[in-house]
Amino acid sequence: MGLKPRGSELGYQVVIFCIALIVSISALFPLLYVVGVSLTSMPELISRNYFVIVPRHPTLSAYHRIVQNPTIWNAFAISVARSTVGPLLSLVVMVLGAYVLSVRTLPGRRTLLMLIIFTMLFTGGLIPRYLVMRRLGLLNNFWVYVLPMLPDAFGLLVVKVFIENLPDGLLESAEIDGATHTQKLLFLAVPLAKPALAAVGMFAVVNHWNSWFDALVFVTRRNLYPLQMVLRNLITADNFHDAAIDILGDMTRVDTVSMRMATVVIGIIPMVMLYPFLQKYFVHGVFLGSVKE
Amino acid sequence: MKRHAELYLLFLPVAVVYIVFRYWDISLGFVAVFKEMRVGQAVWTSPWVGLDNFRMIFANPNVVRTIRNTIEISLLRLLFGFAPPIVLAIIFHDLVWVRFKRVTQTLVYLPHFFSWVVLYGLVFALFSTGSGLVNNVLAGLGFQRVEFLLSTGWFRPILIGSDIWKSMGWGSILYMAALTNVDPGLYEAAVIDGAGPLKRIRHISIPSILPVIAFVLTLTIGNILRAGGEQILIFYNEAVFEVADVIETWVVRVGLGRFQFGVGIAVGLFQSVVGLILIVIGNAVSRRLAGRGIW
Fold first, then answer.
1. I need a surface site. Which of A77, B39, B78, B202 has the fewest CB within 10 A?
2. What is the pTM (predicted TM-score) of this model?
3. Which CATH architecture has domain B55-114+168-290?
4. Cβ–Cβ under 8 Å, residues B279 and B50
5. Considering only CB atoms, which chain B residues are within 8 Å of A97?
6. Mutation choice for A interface testing from B1, B17, B166, B248 by most A CBs within 10 A
7. What is the pLDDT along chain A (293 residues), one digit of tens a residue?
8. Whole-angstrom Cα Rg for chain A
9. A93 and A154 together in one domain
10. Chain B residue with minimum CA distance to A229
């Protein structure tokens, strides 16, 4: 642009640089700290007054204890199961709804759309939901994690907008060839909407992975608890040692501080691993399209 | 017409899951709220009690307290949480050092993907009384330790602070999108006219994100009776109920936990109805003032 570098411009850049730097350090620091503590033995923690980012004598003993624990693995398996089955089934519902509602000539389309949007604005509340789950026999049932999350109105709208914004004629040309809607859905809409489906699916995975509330309300059988629910019971315990005995059946004395922190890190790791894929999608802004509608 | 039949057939599974897992809750709620809910009795056979369940909301001082806490915490979240994403978006938009900007963005978006369980773990690591970093620094400097997690004075700052930490990066994305849609020529012209950075923010950046601000505000106002129960359920403890107990946590702990179904259902519907009314009003106001609503 050939602008003259002026004092106020440089000053402004310095100020916003500093704010951004402080914000990123504050975003990163707690994570580094928790990882640091989780790798440090109790004696070192105490001798260094808990101010540990880089341990002098790093030890994986806290992780060993957790990884060897069958309760954690069981919970991990439940989490993996709900985070794969759940999003896949949700995607089926979303793409069906999105495709049908993107057909502008469909009689009653607006009404159906309003009924779906309404579920984002109005809920029956927790207790009615509990009564419905009880009626359906879903209490203490794995499917209580999956089925109530199938009506994902936001995801459906995102996919619908994406399909509607596909270049004109892509879906219409098939019309001329005499393809049925089912064929168009399977062989045109699904492949073409892949970016939107991937984005929405990823976020469904995150939602499922991070959920614990449904386990708290609908599930009492501990062997059905997902990882976040087990982590919750450990992390929020007043007395970690007692909780470890109760929940993990771990009778040996543990470095409670580092083990609690190792529990937190285990809760973080899968999201950090998924993060690069997630970032690809939300930076693209697949989601923003639907907001503009 | 035959083609439409095929479409309705494709829509059938969608209709089923929305009816069973959304509209059944809603209709059951509207019936049960006018009935006396007894444990072990079906909703249909329970006796009608008119508005008794709603009256019980306001007759129960604990529930009234949760409503007050809910509104207070929501307003505090709005007050302190509203500006940070906007500031962040403007900073990201204006930073000229692109590589640094990318790294920063990557870092501040990340916590959005952590669960509240993990967030509490981080808060515990920093603020717990014995092993918490902050308290050990305080003790090292010769100060008294502070029971941050058990104190009614610190509960809300920690709740809201950690929420801002988690969500401000993600919240900035919406505003960023609005800012990137602004014609860069506007900024160039402003620079040529001698407008400094602050003037450009005031006259170009802020006006261009005004519709997004209206959008976010409308949704926030509509959720005023939802104070983030999932977070509080993890963060709170008996020592801080007085300032921490909100509608959502009360419904889980007492409504469901101690079988007070009637009041629990009534207060849940109260949340939804008030929320819907507020969002409709907010939408109308936003249309008038910002030229665009949320629908």
1. B39
2. 0.91
3. Orthogonal Bundle (1.10)
4. no
5. 11, 14
6. B17
7. 444 456 788 999 999 999 999 999 999 999 999 999 999 988 888 888 888 888 999 999 889 888 888 899 999 999 999 999 999 999 999 999 999 999 988 999 999 999 999 999 999 999 999 999 999 999 999 999 999 999 999 999 999 999 998 887 677 766 667 788 999 999 999 999 998 999 999 999 999 999 999 999 999 999 999 999 999 998 888 777 777 777 776 656 566 788 889 989 998 999 999 998 888 777 655 555 544 44
8. 25
9. yes
10. B117
